[in-house]
Amino acid sequence: MSKGVENGIGGSSGQPVMAGLNREPLAHIAKRDEIPMWKAWTIRLIAVLLSLVVCAVVIFGLTKLNPIEVYKAIFSGAVGTSRRTWVTIRDAMVLLCIAIGLTPAFKMRFWNIGAEGQVLVGGVATAAVMIYGGDSMPTWLMFLVMIVCSIAAGMVWGLIPSIFKAVWNTNETLFTLMLNYVAMQIVTFCIVFWENPSGSNTVGIINSASKAGWLPSLFGMTYGWNVVIVLALTLGMYIYLKYSKQGYEIAVVGESENTAKYVGINVKKVIMRTMAISGGICGIAGFILVSGASHTISTSTAGGRGFTAIIVAWLSKFNAFAMILVSFFLVFMQKGAMQIASQFNLNENASDVITGIILFFILGSEFFINYKVELRGRRKEG
Fold this sequence. Notes:
The protein is mainly alpha-helical. The protein has a single domain (35-369), classed as Orthogonal Bundle (ABC transporter involved in vitamin B12 uptake, BtuC), CATH 1.10.3470. Helix content is 70%, strand content 3%. The protein contains 15 helices and two strands. The protein has a two-stranded antiparallel ribbon with strand order 1-2. Helix 4 (82-107) packs parallel to helix 8 and helix 6 (139-168) runs antiparallel to helix 11 (267-294). The longest helix has 30 residues, at 139-168. It is globular, with a radius of gyration of 26 Å.
């Protein structure tokens, strides 16, 4: 072998053959050890602002409309009047309640996709109490029974897949998902059993004359009780997960079941207990929907909120207070969709496109929160 080849020099040009292979990449991605909360939320805020700019370009490109006018219409549709504001708050509270219910299960790495069914069985239990006890129970007792029954129904619906998971290690994602359809059939059966004359999938307004079982206004606020109940659950869940022994056990089981067993935690008990809590809170959402909002029960009472709440929980990183903002934002955009559809004669999917772009940017911002990009020169200096 020649001396030139030994030294990595090839041909008469004298250029290093392997030099290019040893060159460092232009940028390097490294996981952050920790990031201050203010910096994380600043990154999210920048992502939202950038998403609005992109949305403006998309709106103008597709519809030739003034993006500012479209944004004004979305704002008007969500909070333009006192009535619209309270409806937005009401729906945001329901979505928040379901997200709070999903949080302990998800933190335990139990993928509860059955919130829709848990909400439905909680709602049908509430409707049953309203129908059969509306004329025979005092108001305070009726509300107490409705809450207890909705929680119990949701807990049972949450316990079923958790028992199968704990004992036979079944797939909780498929199990909870299939139970949604079972819950829909139960609602349909109950409606038929209650002899709905129209034969449709709704039982009509319950106790429309007496309003027995309807959540009343609180301090003049139409849906004041909805807000109080859900915010109390939010605070309770935050304290439960962060400061209680059971919250610690949920976190340990979620990180590693083997570690949990090693330190003496009864994993099966934790799984069943946590899913009972998760289902019970979703059952309360059913109570709020039937008693405090629609005053009826149907197969569409949950309205897809059980799946939307999954997005709320994940975007919030299972932070109960962050879920308040995310829930309000998603409902805000949903209500705005109806307004731009009527005002500009656009399909409601136009707002879904806007919401999707914003969510894409928010999800993308999580990358920059969890990772940092180091340029070649800066990395060498470090």
